[in-house]
Amino acid sequence: MNRPAKAPADLHPLTDTTANERLYRYESSVKQAFDNIVPVLKQIASERCDPDFVDRAQQITAQEFGFELPAHILDTAWATGLDMRRLFAWCVFETYRRVSDEFFNADPLGGRVGNDFQAFLQQCGFHLMDITPCADGRLAHAISYVLRLPYGAVRRKSYAGSLFDIENTVEKWIETELMRFREGIPNRADEPTRYLKVVIYHFSSVDPAHQGCAAHGSDDEAAAREGWERLAALRQAIENGFCCGASVGLLLIGMDTDTDAIRVHVPDTNGYCELNQWLDVAKVHEITRGLSAAEARTRIAELVQAHMPGSHAGGAQANGMGASSTDGLSDKGMLQLIARLIENNLSQIDYVRHFHDGHYQDIGHAERFIGTGIGFEEIQLRNLTYFAYLSTVEEGAADLDVGIKIFTGLNVSRSLPVPIVVRYDYHGNVPGARERAVAHCERIAAALKARYPALCSDGMLHCLRAVRDCDAGTPIELVGSSLEPVTGGMH
Ligand SMILES: [Zn+2]
């Protein structure tokens, strides 16, 4: 994966090369760990006739992966043949567990604490930044890489097609206001800051007709329009439901999943944006690359300002909304925040140019496993996980079917099983929450078995169950797997 370094002259003056190196080391080490599994298992399979096969297999995996294979799968190899599918799934799950543990124990991205960003956000007139990217695995790195934000300081809630749940967001808004009112966290309720909701839709510059957002049939305009409709509906819900000028800030961002360049639909002074007008950060990169860092910052601020839709006489105002967001301070703050996001994205544009030859080679799906349930804060890497967030299989059936279809192409076509991690995060300070989370995982695992019976009985779908106490900040806890010895497992 190492690419020859380009001359620094190619880089933007605002690009953080140290962060780029660090982020690349993390991305390549994690992906390498998953991508090593097949070649190493092939090597093991080639030695299975040896009399000391089990010892030899353990030696190879200890050396290559840093862990040992489960004895209950290896021990039966002499009689029933080596079950490579089970071994493959087991290795994927073990690799996931190790990556997840490292994330929670060592914070390799350094994003858990985001005090500086939180302070900046409040200075811009916002107390919480709540971001909804599409659940597509190609946006899983949107926070930590594309926008370079500390994941601990923003709320990420992904949905297929970036179509977030309005009621759930209203609930979060209420919870946030209550925390401000009762505890002054993150700031006091009488401070004039707002909740900021951001939607990130996506498109593909390399293959726009096929590799855009599946939930919108690769129609960028529809993705942007429906994203904005959700945002506007949220604002209306808050303004209708709560008096005293209650409102939210809204921001619509598009993302090219091939280059990670974003485009920002800069809102006007009333908080409205134009769907066909945006500031393309790839262009900003081009325009400001030859300047000094200070000049580039000034130019970016000018470009953001220039991309605000002009004051429409009666245009946005005719809708009768947004009156509470007209104070000059929050407008200025929004522009400041946008300028920061753009500056951050410049580093990511250079990251993809430098380490991935201008655009990613895997422009389509290349996820390593499916993640379903609720949680997965640790997944901050592109194309590692296909997400199907759900509380019940019925509710998320369509997303899951899409995931199974994707993995039929990625894995089943190569005779490899579909690895699914069923995960449920819970609040440990709520009595009985852990038990309910475990029961939830079990219900989802059973429902998966019922929905995909052929894949399960052929050993082509395996499932790991994990829960996590998100209040305690501890790693995940494994609570079961379809790979357990026959007596205790699902099979
Ligand atoms: Zn999408």
What is the topology?
Blueprint: H1 17-35, H2 37-46, H3 53-64, H4 71-74, H5 77-80, H6 84-106, H7 115-123, E1 126-133, H8 142-146, E2 155-156, H9 166-183, E3 194-203, H10 220-241, E4 248-256, E5 262-265, E6 279-280, H11 281-288, H12 293-306, H13 328-355, E7 369-374, E8 385-389, H14 397-410, E9 418-426, H15 433-451, H16 453-457, E10 461-469, E11 477-481
Parallel strand pairs: 1-2, 1-3, 3-4, 7-8, 7-9, 9-10
Antiparallel strand pairs: 4-5, 5-6, 10-11
Helix pairs in contact: 1-13, 2-3, 2-6, 9-10, 11-13, 12-13
Q: Could you characterize the architecture of this molecule?
A:
- By secondary structure, this protein is of the alpha/beta class.
- The chain has three domains: 8-89, Carboxysome Shell Carbonic Anhydrase, N-terminal helical domain (Four Helix Bundle (Hemerythrin (Met), subunit A)); 115-355, Beta-carbonic Anhydrase, Chain A (3-Layer(aba) Sandwich), CATH 3.40.1050; 365-481, 60s Ribosomal Protein L30, Chain: A.
- It has helices at 17-35, 37-46, 53-64, 71-74, 77-80, 84-106, 115-123, 142-146, 166-183, 220-241, 281-288, 293-306, 328-355, 397-410, 433-451, 453-457, and strands at 126-133, 155-156, 194-203, 248-256, 262-265, 279-280, 369-374, 385-389, 418-426, 461-469, 477-481.
- The radius of gyration is 24 Å and the shape is globular.
- The two termini are 38 Å apart.
- 43% of the residues are buried.
- Zinc ion is lined by residues 134, 136, 161, 202, 213-215.
- The site of zinc ion (ZN) has 7 residues, from loops.
